[in-house]
Structure formats: structure tokens, C-alpha cells
Amino acid sequence: MTDLHETATNNTVAMSIAAPSYEIRAERGSDVAARESLLDVCFGASRHARTCQRLRDGRLPAEGLAFSAVVQGRLVGTIRLWHVDAGGRAALMLGPLAVDPGARDLGLGAALMNHAIAEASARGHGAIVLLGDAPYYARFGFTADRMATLALPGPFERDRLLGLELKPGALDRARGIVLASGKRVRRGAAEFQPLADVA
């Protein structure tokens, strides 16, 4: 569990913030309904029509790379990564990242990003791509470098296509359309197939 606290800089004692602590953990099957409600709140009903959603439709998130942020037993944040072919190079697509509006002052967006990037790196993945605001994602190392030769399978804003190499050269010679390459949801399974519950 991650506890929020503030350390005084003048050699006085550390002061606790009157904010709830949060936990970032692997997504569970029991998170599905709350995650979908959170995504509706954050992105609206049109989220299912977005270009990046086409890369997720009918696919499972990359193994071990779907996370939930929980405060006092309530899901308040989500992040998932998905396998893609980024113009001939294996990569992950990050998204969506969502944090409950009432919990945004806890730093959960940054905590989820850092957790997901660290776990993707630990699992040996070479690169992550995403569609998002460059000023926000730059602090995690995402840039538009090497993205000029890549495109998404639908409308997108060129300056929002960003990448992060976890291994040097992972996006070398990446050219073309970013395509979904992850495991498919089993035929007849629910669209939002829950992950196994973890005790």
C-alpha cells in the first residue's frame, strides 16, 4: 500500500497529510463494473468510438499490465497496457488512464503511470506508445520522437502520438500503422472479460 505523506525540509518531524492512503494493485474481475463507470465519467459515452479503442476492442490487456488504484476499498483509478505492432515493432499501447475527479489531488495519475511503466520494463517490454497530451506525458519520458513514421488506424492528432523506449532502439525502423496484436477475447465471452480475482 502506498501512503501519502509530506516530509518537512527544515529538520523537523515529518507531517502526515490528512488524505486517505491508496493502493495500486493488479486489476481484479470485481473491478470491471467500477472501471467501466469511471471511464464513462472521465471520457463520456463517445469513448467507445475513439481511434485507440479500436486497438482494444476484442482484445485482452497485456498480461500483468492492468492496474487499479483503490482508496478505502473503492476503485478510483485505472490504467491498462495492450500489445500492439507499432509499424513492424512490438510495443505496448497505454490507455486509458483515468482517475476519479474527486481523487485527482492524490497524485494517482502519476503513481499509476510510474507503476505501469516500471512493471512493463520489468517484464522486458521494449516500448510504450500512447495518444495523449505531450506536456503531461513528457514528465514520464514520452516524446513525439520516432512517431512521425507511425500512424493510428483512424483519425488522430499527430502531436498527441507519443512514445517511450524502455529499451534503446526499440522503435528503430518503426513505420506504418499501429495495429492490435494482443490476445483476443474468447469467442462468446463478455466484451469486458474480467481478470481472475486475486486475494
Automatic annotation (TrEMBL):
PROSITE patterns: GNAT, PUA
UniProt keyword Nucleus, yes or no: no
Pfam family for this entry, one: Acetyltransf_1
GO molecular function annotations of the record: acyltransferase activity, transferring groups other than amino-acyl groups
Domain N-acetyltransferase, chain residue ranges per copy: 22-167
InterPro entries in the cross-refs: Acyl_CoA_acyltransferase (IPR016181), GNAT_dom (IPR000182)
Keywords annotated in UniProt: Transferase
Protein name per its UniProtKB record: GCN5 family acetyltransferase
